[in-house]
Amino acid sequence: MSSMKDNQTQKRKNEHIDICLTEPVENLLTTGLENYHFHHNPIPELDFNAINIDTTFLGKEIKAPFLVSSMTGGTEKAKRINEKLAEIAETKGWAIGVGSMRAALESGNAASYRIRKIAPTIPILANIGAVQLNYGYGVEECKRAVDMIEADGLVLHLNSLQEVFQPEGDTDFSNLLNKIEQVASNVSVPVGIKEVGMGINGLAAKRLVEIGVSFIDVAGAGGTSWIQVEKYRNKDRIRYEAAKAFQGWGTPTANCLEELKEQGVSTTVIASGGVTNGVEAAKAIGLGAHLVGFGRTLLPRAVQSEQSDILDQFDLIEFELKATMFGVGVSTINELRNTQLLKKPKHL
After folding, report:
1. Residue 120: count of CB within 10 angstroms of its CB
2. Strand ranges, E, within 90-214
3. CA 333, CA 52: separation in Å to the nearest integer?
4. pLDDT tens profile 77-104
5. In 3D, which of 159, 252, 157, 240 has the Cα closest to residue 201?
6. Tens of pLDDT, residues 301-337
7. Does the reported pTM lie above 0.90?
8. What's the rounded Cα separation, in Å, for the pair 60 and 41?
């Protein structure tokens, strides 16, 4: 029985990768970052070569404020993707997350998630769906996921509407806050929460911080819609048709960041959800993010390209961030987080 369940999970993981690469699964909403513009500083008063994008995450120094977002695991194809991305992330000093580890916990085989030997120094995030805390998972499974991959932190992801539209979805999201609090209190590494592309608003973030969550990845709307991904897997006519009405569902990434700032959320904030380049990343940092996550933007090269092409993409994103910082006249990530030159024009 568990072997059949494991095979179903693997099949689903491979379908997710293929759909993300081949189908139009973008949210109709944009990230909202396009509504913000940096006022150019013609006198930056600094040397471009002196710009420093180092920062820290989970107690480790990283060379750039970037995270390879949690995407996949559990299959041979996923293993190759994770290993390619981990190798470049280690070279560039980015943090990295792995996809949902349910497949590893079900099968006992974590080979597709084990990237510590490839990435010995950077922060690595383990990952479990928060809803699994209502389906037999608890503190022990969370600890096991962390230990399996020698992770520095654990992400519990929230994906309520993905589960509703998923043919085999788990939809009991009741009483999760209490269970998340138990995990945050009893797991030895920092525990964070992320959405999967529909956003975490200010009030939700505030409640999560109050129960001991150490970091929040807003994962806002503007990139991949997992409702649309599941639509392409659905043989249920009602869910397939209903997915069309949810093509613009979620809170855009910029709006999430605005709300967290308004609510005075005082924890490490990661901005992901449709961010595609270093200029957008700079805007997200200017709106208060400590790190910026890149997901499907990195996926095509991770599947199809040589390592040098993937490295080029990382280099490009870093150069775009540095050039933006030079254009604004700031030399550190902390200065960028506090810039007064990121504006929302009144006509927008």
Report:
1. 10
2. 95-97, 124-129, 153-157, 191-194
3. 7
4. 999 999 999 999 999 999 999 999 999 9
5. 252
6. 999 888 999 999 999 999 999 999 999 999 999 999 9
7. yes
8. 32
